[in-house]
Amino acid sequence: MATNSGLKNQLANKQETAAKQVSAQSLGLKGLLNTPTMQKKFEQVLAKKAPQFMASVLNLYNGDVGLREAEPMSIVSSAMVAASLDLPVDKNLGYAWIVAFYDSKKGYKAAQFQLGYKGYIQLALRSGQYKAINVIPVYEGELLKWNRLTEEIDLDLDAKKSDKVIGYCGYFKLVNGFEKTVYWTRDEVEAHRIKHNKAKDKKSLNNVWRSDYDAMAMKTVLRNMLGKWGILSIDMQKAFTEDEQERELKDITDEANEYEEPIPFDSQGQDEPANEEPEIIDPDPKKKKTNKKMSAQESMDIDFEDA
């Protein structure tokens, strides 16, 4: 039979556990990134570059109103994908983006990883299989002739008549001598965009398509060309899988004895993190816990239940 003292101890332990549980939304992105568990995960992927990368994620977050409304764990999950590919998330560089979108099924905004055309080029060059690779917009007056069958294209880059983009041209040459040229008209790119647009209004421009149409169009052409005719390294296969794939939000539940002091990488205007790392619960209390992992490799898995 339980004694009054035992019941009091159990009640006190439950209250202490409840006090440590906070939602990722209430903790905020900076609080998440300052936890020892999160820092450890990024250090496992990026080693000494982890603090700089995490600071860039925070800078991106602070400078993007839409992203500040997104669920923090989805931002971290998307950032981990970029980290595993060793690509910067500065949207001005164009290698990779973390964009916010409204998830009508979950009822809140979430972040999503998207690879830029420069990211695809970077991963291709790292493979050592490509001697040359590029994609460019074609302006009015530059296209003289395009043969879809032989893939022979005749461009006069000095004959530009206006800033109107009429199409996009992609090209690569492998070290073994194989080369491929593709050309998409602006209408073909637009038809592809509308077909794969997840919004209710298929013709609406959203996220990077709205802010940098040409960059997304060049990415579409390059991705299609590499997917059909290119040599895909492990990283490139991973990029194809993860690009624009919805991230799975996962719980973070650390061992009770992990209370090491986190090292804040940006504390300007922010309170110092507490010594104890709280348990971060799922933003959707109705969602059942699952051991299902994301489709990325283990280095990209946001499973924080290890010791």
Automatic annotation (TrEMBL):
Positions with biased composition (Acidic residues): 254-263, 273-282
Segments for region (Disordered): 245-307
One record GO biological process: DNA metabolic process
Pfam families the UniProt entry points to: RecT
GO molecular function: DNA binding
Highest taxon, organism lineage: Bacteria
InterPro entries (alphabetical): RecT_fam (IPR018330), ssDNA_annealing_RecT (IPR004590)
Protein name in the entry: Recombinase, phage RecT family protein
Source organism: Cytobacillus firmus DS1
